[in-house]
Design goal:
mainly alpha, disordered N terminus
């Protein structure tokens, strides 16, 4: 009932002034007590027409503080995601690079043969497939850290390209300058992509 009276009083005040409000309210009552009560309602009604705290414009300082808090929270989330993704990437890289280096080292012997390198090549290809298979999850983890996600995504594309090129050369079993015609350029590109990941990843 109080809220209804206040609402009516506010409406009357805005529509036609305080006198109309008092007149409309007092019609419901009789005698001096009723008039006094009506006057009391008028005072309460006028007080109720004041601005309600919290409905005005926010303090610019509060807005700035809120925005700063949100930005800091997002930055912290991105940093944590990036660090986690980089650690996972490094773990996969460390395993695969051992197999790649073993293959490269074998070819340093001028007398190496395709038959002799088969086991090492197959091991490297298996390591490539394993690393590549885990990278989508790593890339997803890195999503809040855009630069890291982009670098690892590019690295995966170069890793897959290197694996495909290595299979082509293995099947061709060429010699001389054509021995690693496909995989050598792909391996160089992969190395560049790996360096790019290390550059954007945190050092610790």
């Amino acid at each position: 009932m109080r809220d209804n009276a206040v609402m009516e009083a506010c409406t009357s005040t805005h529509a036609g002034g305080g006198k109309n409000m008092t007149a409309r309210t007092t019609r419901r009552f009789r005698g001096r007590a009723a008039a006094a009560l009506a006057a009391g309602v008028s005072v309460v009604a006028l007080a109720g027409c004041a601005s309600v705290p919290g409905t005005g414009s926010a303090d610019p300082k509060d807005v700035a503080a809120y925005q700063s808090t949100i930005a800091a929270s997002r930055a912290a989330a991105a940093a944590a995601a990036g660090k986690s993704a980089c650690a996972s990437w490094q773990a996969g890289y460390d395993i695969r690079i051992v197999a790649s280096r073993a293959t490269v080292a074998f070819t340093k012997d001028p007398k190496w043969t395709w038959d002799g390198i088969t086991t090492l090549l197959n091991a490297e290809l298996a390591a490539i497939d394993t690393e590549s298979g885990k990278l989508p999850g790593v890339i997803s983890t890195a999503q809040p850290a855009a630069s890291i996600q982009t670098a690892i995504t590019d690295y995966k594309s170069k890793l897959d390209a290197y694996g495909a090129a290595l299979r082509v050369d293995q099947a061709a079993r060429a010699s001389g300058d054509a021995t690693w015609a496909k995989s050598n350029p792909a391996f160089d590109a992969l190395g560049t992509a790996a360096t790019a990941v290390k550059r954007v990843c945190p050092s610790s």
